[in-house]
Amino acid sequence: MTLARLAGPIRRWLYAGGTRQDRLRDPDAVIAVVDLRPGMVIADLGPGAGHFTLRLARAVEPNGVVYALDASRSTLDDLRRAADQRGITTLRPVPVRRDHLDIPEPVDLLFVSATYHHLPDPPNYFAEARTHLRPGARVAILESRREGLLARWRGRHASSPRRVVREMTDAGYRLSATHDVVRGYWYGLFEVGH
Hints:
This protein has one domain (3-192): Vaccinia Virus protein VP39 (Rossmann fold, 3-Layer(aba) Sandwich). It contains eight helices and seven strands, in the order H-H-H-E-H-E-H-E-E-H-E-H-H-E-E. With 194 residues, the chain is of the alpha/beta class. Helix 6 (122-129) links the parallel strand 4 (107-113) and strand 5 (133-144). It has helices at 8-14, 20-24, 27-32, 53-59, 73-85, 122-129, 151-154, 161-170; strands spanning 41-45, 65-70, 91-95, 107-113, 133-144, 173-179, 185-192.
């Protein structure tokens, strides 16, 4: 029997994480949480195929900017082509290293979807990232839950919500809200602590 066939409470007890399909099922609900406005400047860390990135770029039109930040040049090239095909002019691909964030200008929102677990040292990474945030900026982290009896084996591409909150607090942030919009995923919004 596969894990997916088990009843919900039993499945979550064994492993509470979500799949890529879960994360991409309702992208508009994910984007709605961050309350975007035209003219905002956003950084999307680890945009992948751009499922959220292109929606972010549309939301800040006509004069906003979305910086797609990735270590993979081919990912950024593919994303640029996808934006061009859709007539999106607010997207700016930016190559970055995995261990250091560099954004061309301070941002209103740093969006991190299914990327947190790839960072080698999240507390230091996000402590340094504070220099790239405008006053009142937020960091949105959407991450598969690494919880449950089988999380040690099944949760390689996930993070414990407690760990994320602890590390972000250590980096100088405070959790301002959580949202339950994606099955198996934890979605938290952080602000620079006071």
